[in-house]
Design brief:
105 residues; alpha/beta; 5 helices
Length: 105
């Protein structure tokens, strides 16, 4: 979803990791690619990346990959499990959360 801040548009990316399997996760380049959605390409507009329904092994792999990313990029990434909805609602209005994730968009 996009949020206007003065004359700039701010963007938040939501990545649904449901179905991600162990072979994907063990390929560290996949994690780096997912984490790089937005921030490096559009750092001035990306204010957050939320990875929802992350399997536990993804969270473990993220702890290994996070130090390899630029600090500003890593700080914008939020890894959430199946209980992601309330954490999203704290940052994103319900009308901007996709319906398949429980929102109204």
């Amino acid at each position: 979803g996009n949020r206007s801040t003065g004359n700039k548009t701010r963007s938040i990316a939501i990545v649904d990791l449901q179905g991600l399997n162990k072979s994907h996760i063990l390929n560290i380049s996949v994690i780096k690619e997912i984490a790089s959605i937005g921030p490096p390409n559009y750092p001035e507009v990306t204010c957050g990346v939320f990875m929802v329904r992350a399997p536990w092994i993804f969270s473990a792999a993220w702890r290994l990959v996070r130090p390899l990313l630029p600090r500003d990029t890593a700080a914008k990434v939020n890894i959430l499990g199946d209980d992601f909805y309330e954490a999203l609602r704290e940052k994103i209005p319900e009308e901007n959360i996709p319906a398949f994730l429980g929102g109204k968009c």
